[in-house]
């Protein structure tokens, strides 16, 4: 279920990257993850090391498998694009009915 | 030599943070120990159980949580101490673009817990599980790099790794950078992180004092000393050319008047050498070549920490260097603060300003081989010159000579 | 304090994937071959990439282990071997007083620590010799050199990632000029280890093929191991001792990007500052430089940033300046890279030849560098060279070396 994958991704971002005080509902699906926060303070200010850190978790826990040359940093631009990236490179697809809820 | 002034001191240690906490602990002979985590299975049953870990409750006044989220523990300590030092020097804002600020930071073992964690990932889960974040922050120069990032210090960035002698090497090199005009300001100091694994390893080398009849007490220069209490923390000094400090009306804590450095090649990697006379002669000769007369020393701040062989090496070097003269009073900050060379450095700066030192905790009986009685707590006159010494595991030895501010 | 005047390089030593001598390093570099090969001894199971530059087995002609050297880590052995050669060339006897050791490294004997931790985690640490840890601390290789050759001068190790070796040579220069030492043994040593190998792979910074510095399709760095050592002394002292200067160390500079923990400043601002600082230290204008031994790791970011640094310093002349990198041949030696590259630079100056950069493929069109490819390029015997080392964490170091000239 799309919602649950996005929610899992948000949880991973917060926990893996040590974003204290943040909750998943504070991260909009289309909020820019990288680069400094935008004018409205909506971006998360993550960088390339954070992207690689997330990648390790996606590989370990989401069954993603990707060659270095296939990594496109555009995929990391927001949670929605990350979800598409995960789906694209997931080797072990989890059936929708078994996906965790919420 | 162009006069170099120490204008700021930032410190995170077992006694708390800042100059005030350091002074209090030294004056009142306070020893702040905590129990180390021995549940990971690294420690032997009979091992040391305590350490002088940095008393870090909240570093946020000097380090924003957002900036520190990926930092290893020593990076956090160093960054906080650097900011504290700059504030102490009244340089709270980062140096202007025209200022060239260099960073010379020492560490013995680097970010030990992050190194351990990433090794564990590689060993248990395989290399592809290695965390990029942990790796980046596990390198010895991570703290110095983080300090430079936060303070926008674009001058030389050097991490000295020479165990207990590192802090004094860093200050000497920092001063050299100022004297040559390659930097206008230097952040120099040391940082050490004491992880449970590192503590366990030090203990396995019988470097640490263990629980026993005498208690787990470090006894610098004492006849029955049997090891040190491991320390942890960060100490950073702001160094400037004295003329620049005067021009901006800065308060000088102490002046750096000289240094000398040597090595005892008879020392094994995890011990000390058998040639204290040769080392002392080299240190003395090199200090005199720098224009400094050892005879003007009023106080010695020694890195001696209760190590059986380490204190012996330090003591014999001092005895040899001061042969034919009475040894000035000797204080051993490690007795209060735990063994961490940054603490020795911080205490030395305070000593140069006339800070009081209480009776040396743990000292009971003189070692006849050394004949050194560390300070008994009686009032000390304001010193003209303070000699700071560090005789490191492995053979390196460094002296700094500090003078009181004018 | 007495001024020491010009500083001469009087001895060289090196251990690399090409062998345990500086001569083998030079012939390897000159040939354009690469020592970056499928890993033979280093365990790359589970890693993303499998090519490395490994130092070959110790030649049988080497002296057997003494009681002291039995506990040496690989990094210690590389350091002592390179120092032995450099000191022999400089006719610098063990036990000579007032000789300092200034070293760089990034992991020292950590491979021993990896085995210790592995044993600890599996509950069998009682059976693993504690001595494995003796060679642990980062100062071990530099101390091993001082110990092996009975030196009592200042001994100092720095660990600033990829800039360490170059910084060490720079610190030696400072100590010589300050009159703190009569002579300096300066260098660096690093050995392959799982921690670093895994870490750089985790950063996706490693090329699965031997790295190709400055090429259009470069894909990352290649890791290597080894040591480089130089003996440095005031030239008058060399003359007094009847030792011929091999080259001159004119200047050293250092800076910090203060930009990011792994990525270089995109315009190479910090690198440019280090280069300018080295030139200023040497009392030279950028126009004096004849060639560059670049950091040239082969990562997409470094090589481009380094190019920007060169254009910032040298302007239009940057595209006419011959540039080479050792890293395509011997890989990235991390803490000892700057030192072994200083050795290679001196060798170029001695031979009057810039060695080529190994690896296939056209140069990146976005990088207008004049990369030395294929055949070695001739230079005058008193040429001036720049060697750069740009580290992880943003520390940068640069050295200016020149062929020995009595006239300078």
Plain-language structure description:
The complex is a heterotrimer of chains A (102), B (406) and C (408). Chain A is built from three helices and no strands. Chain A has 102 residues and is mainly alpha-helical. Chain A is globular and about 35 Å long. Chain A starts with a helix and ends in a 13-residue tail after the last helix. The mean pLDDT of chain A is 82. Chain B has 406 residues and is an alpha/beta fold. In chain B, a hairpin with a 4-residue loop joins strand 12 and strand 13. In chain B, helix 1 crosses helix 13 and helix 3 crosses helix 6. Chain B starts with a strand and ends with a strand. In chain C, the strands form three sheets. Chain C has an eleven-stranded mixed sheet with strand order 5-4-6-7-1-8-15-14-9-10-12, with helices on both faces. Classes of the chains: A mainly alpha (102), B alpha/beta (406), C alpha/beta (408). Chains B and C meet through helix 4, helix 5, helix 6, strand 6 and helix 7 of B and helix 3, helix 4, strand 5, helix 5 and helix 6 of C.
Radius of gyration of chain B: 20 Å
Low-confidence stretches of chain B: none
| Helix count from the secondary structure assignment of chain B | 13
N-to-C terminal Cα separation of chain C, in Å? 23 Å
Distance from N terminus to C terminus of chain B (CA atoms, Å) equals: 16 Å
| Largest interface, counted by CB within 8 Å of the partner chain's CB | B-C, 79 and 76 residues
Helicity of chain C, in percent?
25-40%
Global morphology of chain B: globular
What share of the residues of chain C does DSSP label as strand, in percent?
15-25%
Largest sheet of chain C: 11 strands, mixed
Spans where pLDDT lies below 50 across 5 or more residues of chain C: none
Structural class of chain C: alpha/beta
* Arithmetic mean pLDDT of chain B: 95
| DSSP E strands of chain B, number | 13
The arrangement of helices and strands of chain C along the chain is EHEEHEHHEHEHEHEHEHEHHEEEEE
SS-based class of chain B: alpha/beta
Average pLDDT taken over every residue of chain C: 94
List SSEs of chain B in N-to-C order.
Answer: EEHEEHHEHHHEHEHEHEHEHEHHEE
Count the beta strands of chain C: 15
Number of helices of chain C: 11
